[in-house]
Structures are given as C-alpha cells and as structure tokens.
C-alpha cells in the first residue's frame, strides 16, 4: 500500500497534503494508542486467569460456545478485538482442555465473536473509527458527524451479531467437525492412560521411584501403580515407594514414544493380547503409596554404611562369593546411578584394590525369577559392549535389558539376562568368563529392537461395527496388538484398569465396537504393514483402489529397479491396500527442541491464597496447557525436634490444598512462564527471585547452557553464590533429556545442564558480549516477564475510566486513550519500552497510505466509474436502496479479501459516498454498511488478524474458513441489508434474538442427548 501511495504521489495524482492525510488520522492514531492500553491489561497476568474461572464448567459443546461468544461479543464492543483475542486465546486453550471441548469448536467462534461484537458500537474496532474519521473529513459541515454517538451503529450491528452467533452455534458441528485430519477433535495424548508391567529384567525392579528413572523422562509421566501382590491402586506414589516385579504402572503423555520408553526401562506394554490382572484387582484406590516390604532394602543400598566391605566386591572372585545378595545389589544399584549421571554416588566404591585389578564384575542370580544380573566396571575401549554381549550368549544367557555409559574413561554397564533352556551356569563361571574377556577384543553383536507404539484412526473399512471378538485374526492380519481405544466423544478404553471419581473399573477391549474415527493406540511388530507408508495421496484421493496405487507406485519407482523387484514391491503394496483402508496411521506431532526440553518447577501455595481448601481439579490447575502436575508435597515438622526440622511428604492429588503445599509441574520454559500468571501460586525460590537487582518490568525468563570448563561445573547454586555473582535466580534445571526433581539450590551442576533463570536485561547484555562466563549459550524466553498481580485493579480502573469519559463526551476517545496510556506507564503497569513495543506499527503503515490511495481514486475518476456501476446494479435489482446497500456491502467484502479490511474500508469509502449521492441515500447509512461489511472477514484466515491468531492453535486450514465462513457471509449480507433498510429496528432485534434463543436451545438439547 505504501508503494502504491508513493507511485500516485510521484505521478502527481495527489498532492503531499493528501498523501499524508492518513498518517495524521485521529481514528488511526486512536487505534495505536488503544494497543498500549490493552497491553497494560495483558501484562498484569491475572486477568486471563479470572476470565477462565468465570467461564465455568459447561457440560456440552454448545454450552461452551455460548459461554465463550456471549461475553466476547459484549466486550468486543468496547475493547479492541485484537487485544481481546490476544488475552482470551491462552485462557480458552487451557479452559477447553479442562472442559473436554475440541479447540476446533472454540477458537474460530472466538475470532468470529470478536468481529461480530466490533460492529455493535462505533468504537468496537479500528475500522469503525477509520470510517468515522473519513466521514468527518469528507463532510466537515455536517454537525451530526462531528459528535457521532457511541451507539450510533448499535441498532444495525446487534441483529447481525445475534444471527452470526446463531449460525456459528448451529453449523459448527456440521462444518467444522466434518473432517479432522489432525485428530484435534479428540482428546490429547495426556488423556489416555497406558499400562505397562514391570518385568524382572527392568532396572527399576526393586528400586524406589526416586531411583528408578521412571520420572526423569520428558513427555511421559507416571500416574499410578497397581501392586501385583494386593491389587491395590496407588494414585500418589512417594519418591520412596519401591517397585516390585509384576507391578502395573500407569503412564500418560507422548504415545508415540511409549514403546521406546518401555523398551528402555524393561516394561511390558499391556495390550489386548496381554491381559492385566484386573479380575483379581480390588476395587479400592490407595491414596498414597506406602513403602513395601522391600523398602528397608531400598533404603539400605542408598546409605553410606559398610562401604569398606564393598570396595573390593567384584574385583576378585573371592570378594564376590563372600558377599551377600544385598551387598551385590547395592553395588549394582550404585553403578546404575552412575550410568544415569550420579557419578559421585558410585565413585567412593570404585577405588582399585591393592591387588591391582582394573575390572569389576558383579554377578547375582535370582533363581525364583530366572534372573541373572551382571554389572561391569572396566576401562573403556572400542567394541567392548559388543564383546560382552557375545560372551553372554556363549554363556547361554538370553539378554533382555542393558544400560551403559562411559564415565571418566571407564565403561559402566548392567546386563539383565534369563538363563536359556538347558543352561546352568554358576556365578563363578559367569564371573570367570567375563573377567577374562575384559582384556581382549571381541566380535560384533546385535540387539533386537523392541516393538513400536503408534496411533491409527479407524476408517470406513472392514473394522467398522465389529469388536475384537469378531476379528479373531486381528493380530495376524495387522501384525499389531491394541493398547487403548479412544472414541470420538473422548471416552478411552484400555485392557487394564480405568479410574474415575476415585473408583477403579475393569474393562475389556474385546467388547468395544469400532466406529469410524476411533483412535487406536497400537503396539506393532517389525513386519507390520502399518509401519509401511502408503502413497502421499492415498487418503486425499477419492479413489484409493488397487489400480490407482499401482499407477502411483510405477510413477515413483526407481529407474534402476529390475522388473522383478518392481513387481514384488507392487504386490506387497497392493496387499497392504485393505489394511491402509481400514486404519490410517497418524504421524507423530513434531516438537521443537524447546518443547522437548522440560523443566521441573516447584510452585508453592501462598498465604491467604484462594486455592487453599480446594483440590487441584476444583482450582483448575490439574490440566494446564503444556504442563503436567507431577506431584504435591505437604510440609510437616519432625515431632519433638529442636530446633524444628521441616520435611516434605508426597500427598495424593485429590486432597485439598493448604498453605505452603509445594506443587511440582513439568513443562517447557514458555509453559513455566504461563504458570507464574496463576494468582495464589509463587515459585518456591521466590525469595531469591525477589532479591534480583532488576525492575520486575525488565526481568524475563532465560535459558542458559552450563559451559563445559566453566566455574559452575561440579558446584551447587549455593556454593557459587549464583544470584550475587550473575544477578539472576535459578528456577529449574534440565539435564540430558531428563527432569531433575530437586530444588535448584541443591543441584550439583554439570556441563551441558540447561538452567531456567529469571534475569534482567543486564544479564542478557553481559552474556552477549562476555565469553568468559559459565555459559555457552543464553537465550531469552519470549513473553516471559513476571506477572504484576497488584496492578490488575489499577489497570482495570484506568481502562474503564477512559471509555466512560469518552462515552460522556468529556473528551474524544483519542484523548482519553492517551491519558490511559500515560497513566499505565506512570503507575508502573507498563514500562516505557513495553509501551513502545505494544504499538503495532505495521498496521499503521498499512492503513495510513490507504487514505491517500482512496483520494487518488476520487481525483482520477475511478471511484466515480465504479460508483456508477454499483448504482446501476442496485437499481437493476428493483428493491430500492436495499439493492445499492447490498452491492456496496458485497464489494467491500470482496475487496477486504484482497487487502486489509481497514484499507478496504478506506478505499471503498469515496466510491460508496459517490454512489449514495447519486441514489439519494443517507451518507450515515452507507457508512454503516461499510462498517458492517469490512468487519465481516469470515471467508479466509487472511481477512483479519484474529483469524490468523487462532488458525494454528485450532488446526484450521484455509479451506475450513472458506467452507464455514462463506455461507455465514451470505447470511450476514442479507441480515445487514434488512437491518439497514427496515425503519423499525426493534422488530429486527426481536426477530434475530428469537432465532438465537431457538438455535441455542436446539443445540444444547442435541448435545445433551448425545452425552446421554
């Protein structure tokens, strides 16, 4: 637009004053100032939380849509729609997940509601203000335009809003949910509970939760444990809870990585082929996991007693034979901890004995479980692990699980094996053979990969209407077993237990009837056809027949393939066609490095917090977007301790929160920033944060990677006096893909650790130019400044006061908005830099030139020619002024699909006014028609910026906007025209409101029937 303005000026079609008229437009400048006011509300951080609480808990999708659209339409009449959607978007994403309503039914209605509310008042959106400004400039002698009432547009805009809401509520289930390639209508992975049995080969067997490593993996979370011995479900297991072989562990999180997770930790996924012991399980839930009979053993190997007796264990055969099973397991567990990065735990036990032996081999045999565990600590060398694996095979030991790492030039490894049939090797033989091997080189060994877990959607094929019981050859046909089934309404079925309302329910996958759209979580074998990808256009083509696939195959075949190879590959692909028609495998969602990097953050319930006395579910903090509530710890005092000694104990997630409770959340750095915006919660390390010598408005979250040779390695945050030296506070630590469940001040830092810091601009500036610090990389987390809860009330008072003063004509809206912006900065709600950044200059540079281009259209005669054409079209319709108003409306809508709606309004204005003069139509009616039309940006995501804001989060495509928005555009064209030409505005109001009420009742009743 700026280029067009420059060309028109250089061509002398417009003069300098006309070219710069838009840059001094009062309406446009008012829009820019309102961006600052809206940013002030957003920076308080608490407004979005309270909005989410006011929305409540609707039981149906229609109820949710009504609760979203009604307040947004009302507020959008007085608050800038872009700022309103900016504030509401994260709130509604979180709220939709909590009330189990698909985002596709919420976010596009959010954007459309903001547009509909904007046409209810003159100040509802920036386009209205620009059109009013154009009226003032075009007709300076008209007194009624000089002080246009705030509600001048209301008689015409409210019916449009009513009918628009009715259309969205009625048609969204039919058009928005008609197809969903991304599966967004379903629940997220976090809603699916997957079970896995702890095998005797698992390194977690006999270990506490804290030492098992099961809570360290990002993206997968341990929810509960079912004891094999008792059948009881423990929903809140403490870090000291010891796992036993045969226990069923329930996880939630990333489904696509669950198979690899189970393989790594020696777990067996519960599928329809692997029945869980639900029939013997008791229908009771233990609220807190208690130490088992093995807990005393677990505690013994985590203490530092009898170390002297263990120093030589495994270096010689006599030391191994003279040791107890408990001593051997203690050394094995310490080697396991060292493999996982806790080298300091093991290093006191690995001193070389006086005999000079350099290799340690610890062997223990548990005959009752057919389990042989071998732990090896030796000098590292190429090919060592391959040699050991082959040696174990020669000893007739079938390898089930291994883990290894290199520490300080030494190779540490643990091998969990099962004696093969006919094998009866003793501990002496195993130790002697392996010990003699460690000084030799060996040959190559391989390890069979585990089974993969993936997701597939049921298509309209052979599975529909059947159960697993009706498909006895399911496993053979698909080379897969079912882990879980998720129905379109969100219900989840698994082979194991399900929990709801504190009760345990048993169920069988064999009884579930398959429907189109069901999501299956499958464990597939290596040769499963589901692991082979169909042609790219297989599911998008209407014809996925054999012939079409053959054509695509030949077209994509490699030129150097022989005819026999091509025929064989084609036959394989053709055999897979029925299976691909039955099930569509969903590709894993790609997540960036930041999303994979999870931080474990401790939040504490503040004094006098509104969260006190509520459960996390009642408080709405149990399922926050991008965050997982790992555990809750309650502070207690050791009885009779002097001075009082405080400790924390894990409590169930179902108890009511109390002051001082610590909630451990896992999530990305961005999610942690959002977590701080919840009133009543504060970071456990808030005392350190408050001591950071920077203004709150200048602080933000920063990710910093610890340097390999820096001063931080091997020291804790307390020891280096981190805050004093670096001027920043450590909030959480991420280490090698693992979450670190410990207070940051107590963590001994390692090279490569990623620290999540709260720091000021001075920290960022210093580390961008200084390379001798302890960090190799420093990056700022966007939009992560700390919330300013105490500024919520002042910001609301300032904003409301500005609008009230404008409504009472005490000053123009530009004047009151400027005063509000100045007060926001003066009161400390915003800093000066934040106020400058809030102004969206790209909008200013897009709209301002449109004024000059519009003037060029008038002077060149183009506006007059188009106006004549529109008058002729309107007259030809034979319906009087309604025809011309409808033609202008349609022309404005079409133009707003090409350029920004603000620019479209500025361009169409001179044309419309010329047409109004020719047809004798009131200028104000024509201006209202432009306002209504330019805000009707429903057909494409590019028509208005709020559409683009919700597009990615809701999973919409351009086609979704076209299919859903085009009929709505036609309906509103008719309603807008009727509202403008019917003198009895109240009649139009009543009619449109009646339609809205009937549609709402119909949808609510339909949704209620569907739930029943």
Structural notes for this entry:
This protein is α+β, with helices and mostly antiparallel strands. 44% of the residues lie in helices and 16% in strands. The protein contains 39 helices and 27 strands. It has a 6-stranded mixed β-sheet, covered by helices on one side. Helix 5 (61-76) runs antiparallel to helix 6 and helix 10 packs parallel to helix 39 (985-1011). The two termini are 55 Å apart. Mean pLDDT is 75; it is low at 178-189, 276-305, 351-355, 440-450, 498-506, 542-561 and 589-595.
Strand-helix topology:
Layout (H helix, E strand, L loop, with lengths): L1 H9 L5 H4 L6 H18 L3 H8 L6 H16 L4 H19 L7 H12 L7 H13 L4 H4 L7 H22 L18 E5 L10 H4 L7 E7 L6 E2 L13 E6 L4 H8 L1 E3 L15 E2 L8 H7 L5 H4 L6 H5 L3 H15 L3 H4 L13 E7 L4 E9 L4 H11 L2 E11 L2 E10 L7 H11 L14 E7 L15 H5 L1 E7 L5 E3 L2 E4 L2 E4 L12 E6 L21 H11 L6 H20 E4 L6 H4 L2 E7 L10 H4 L7 E11 L8 E6 L10 E6 L1 H7 L5 E3 L2 H5 L8 E8 L15 H5 L1 E8 L2 E2 L14 E7 H9 L5 E6 L11 H16 L5 H14 L5 H7 L2 H20 L1 H15 L4 H16 L4 H19 L3 H12 L10 H10 L3 H24 L3 H27 L1
Parallel strand pairs: 3-6
Antiparallel strand pairs: 1-4, 1-5, 2-3, 2-4, 7-8, 8-10, 9-10, 11-16, 11-17, 12-13, 12-16, 14-15, 18-21, 18-22, 19-20, 19-21, 23-26, 23-27, 24-25, 24-26
């Amino acid at each position: 637009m700026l280029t067009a303005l420059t060309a028109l000026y250089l061509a002398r079609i417009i003069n300098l004053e006309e070219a710069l008229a838009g840059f001094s437009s009062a309406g446009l400048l008012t829009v820019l100032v309102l961006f600052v006011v809206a940013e002030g509300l957003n920076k308080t951080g608490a407004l979005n939380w309270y909005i989410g609480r006011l929305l409540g808990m609707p039981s149906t999708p229609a109820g949710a849509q009504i609760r979203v659209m009604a307040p947004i339409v009302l507020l959008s009449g007085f608050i800038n729609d872009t700022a309103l959607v900016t504030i509401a978007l994260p709130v509604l994403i979180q709220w939709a997940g909590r009330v189990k309503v698909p985002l596709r039914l919420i976010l596009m209605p959010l954007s459309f509601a903001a547009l509909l509310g904007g046409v209810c008042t003159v100040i509802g959106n920036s386009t209205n203000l620009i059109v009013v400004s154009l009226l003032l400039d075009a007709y300076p002698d008209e007194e009624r335009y000089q002080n246009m009432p705030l509600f001048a547009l209301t008689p015409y805009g409210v019916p449009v809003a009513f009918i628009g809401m009715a259309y969205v509520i009625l048609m969204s289930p039919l058009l928005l949910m008609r197809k969903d390639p991304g599966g967004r209508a379903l629940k997220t992975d976090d809603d699916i509970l997957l079970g896995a049995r702890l095998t005797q080969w698992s390194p977690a067997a006999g270990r506490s939760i804290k030492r098992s490593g099961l809570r360290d993996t990002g993206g997968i979370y341990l929810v509960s444990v079912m004891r094999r011995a008792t059948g009881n479900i423990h929903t809140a297991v403490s870090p000291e809870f010891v796992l036993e072989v045969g226990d069923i562990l329930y996880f939630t999180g990333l489904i696509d990585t669950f198979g690899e997770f189970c393989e790594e930790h020696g777990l067996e996924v519960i599928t329809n082929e692997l029945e869980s012991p639900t029939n013997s399980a008791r229908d009771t839930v233990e609220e807190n996991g208690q130490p088992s009979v093995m807990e005393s053993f677990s505690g013994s190997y985590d203490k530092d007693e009898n170390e002297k007796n263990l120093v030589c264990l495994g270096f010689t055969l006599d030391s191994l034979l003279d040791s107890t099973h408990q001593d051997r397991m203690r050394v094995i567990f310490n080697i396991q901890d060292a493999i996982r990065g806790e080298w300091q735990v093991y290093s006191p036990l690995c001193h070389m004995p006086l005999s000079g032996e350099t290799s340690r081999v610890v062997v223990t045999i548990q005959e009752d479980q057919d389990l042989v565990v071998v732990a090896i600590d030796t000098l590292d060398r190429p090919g060592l692990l391959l040699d050991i694996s082959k040696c174990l095979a020669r000893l007739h030991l079938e390898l089930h699980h291994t883990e290894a790492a290199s520490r300080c030039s030494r190779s540490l490894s643990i091998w969990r094996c099962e004696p093969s049939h006919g094998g009866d090797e003793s501990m002496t033989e195993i130790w002697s053979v392996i010990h003699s091997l460690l000084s030799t080189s060996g040959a190559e060994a391989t390890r069979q990969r585990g089974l993969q877990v993936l997701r597939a959607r049921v298509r309209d094929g052979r599975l529909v209407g059947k159960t697993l019981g009706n498909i006895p050859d399911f496993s053979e046909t698909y080379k897969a077993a079912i882990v879980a089934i998720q129905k379109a309404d969100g219900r989840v079925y698994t082979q194991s237990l399900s929990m709801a309302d504190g009760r345990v329910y048993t169920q069988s996958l064999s009884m579930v009837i398959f429907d189109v759209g069901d999501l299956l979580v499958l464990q597939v074998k290596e040769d499963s056809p589901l692991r082979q990808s169909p042609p790219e256009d297989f599911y998008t083509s209407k014809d996925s027949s054999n012939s079409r696939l053959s054509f695509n195959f030949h077209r994509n075949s490699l030129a150097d393939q022989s005819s026999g190879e091509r025929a064989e590959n084609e036959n394989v692909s053709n055999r897979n066609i029925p299976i691909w028609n039955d099930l569509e495998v969903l590709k894993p969602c790609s997540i960036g490095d930041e999303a994979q990097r999870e931080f474990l953050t401790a939040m504490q319930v503040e004094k006098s917090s509104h969260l006190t006395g509520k459960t996390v579910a009642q408080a709405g903090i149990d399922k926050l977007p991008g965050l997982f509530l790992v555990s809750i710890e309650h502070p207690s005092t050791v009885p009779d301790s002097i001075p009082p000694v405080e400790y924390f104990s894990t409590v169930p997630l179902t108890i009511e929160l109390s002051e001082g409770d610590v909630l451990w959340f896992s999530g990305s750095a961005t999610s942690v920033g959002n977590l701080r915006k919840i009133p009543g919660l504060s970071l456990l390390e808030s005392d350190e944060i408050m001591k950071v010598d920077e203004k709150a408005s200048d602080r933000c979250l920063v990710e910093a990677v610890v340097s390999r040779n820096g001063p931080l390695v091997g020291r804790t945050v307390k020891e280096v006096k981190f805050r004093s030296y670096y001027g920043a506070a450590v909030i959480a630590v991420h280490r090698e893909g693992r979450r670190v469940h410990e207070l940051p001040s107590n963590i001994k830092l390692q090279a490569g650790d990623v620290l999540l810091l709260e720091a000021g601009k001075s920290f960022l500036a210093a580390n961008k130019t200084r390379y001798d610090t302890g960090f190799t990389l420093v990056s700022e987390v966007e939009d992560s400044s700390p919330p300013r809860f105490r500024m919520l009330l002042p910001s609301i008072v300032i904003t409301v006061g500005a609008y009230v003063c404008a409504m009472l004509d005490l000053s123009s809206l530009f004047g009151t908005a400027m005063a509000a912006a100045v007060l926001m900065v003066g009161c400390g709600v915003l800093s000066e830099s934040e106020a400058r950044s809030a102004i969206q200059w790209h909008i200013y540079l897009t709209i301002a030139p449109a004024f000059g281009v519009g003037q060029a259209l008038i002077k060149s005669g183009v506006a007059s020619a188009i106006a004549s054409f529109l008058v002729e079209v309107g007259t030809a319709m034979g319906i009087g002024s309604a025809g011309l108003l409808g033609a202008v409306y349609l022309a404005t809508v079409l133009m707003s699909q090409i350029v920004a709606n603000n620019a479209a309004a500025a361009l169409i204005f001179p044309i419309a006014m010329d047409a109004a003069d020719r047809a004798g139509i009131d200028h104000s009616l024509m201006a209202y028609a432009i306002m209504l039309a330019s805000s009707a940006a429903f057909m494409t995501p590019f028509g208005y910026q709020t559409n683009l804001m919700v597009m990615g989060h809701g999973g919409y495509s351009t086609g979704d906007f076209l299919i859903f928005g085009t009929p709505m555009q036609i309906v509103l064209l008719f309603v807008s025209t009727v509202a403008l030409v019917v003198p009895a505005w109240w009649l139009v109001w009543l009619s449109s409101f009646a339609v809205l009420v009937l549609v709402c009742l119909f949808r609510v009743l339909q949704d209620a029937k569907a739930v029943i």
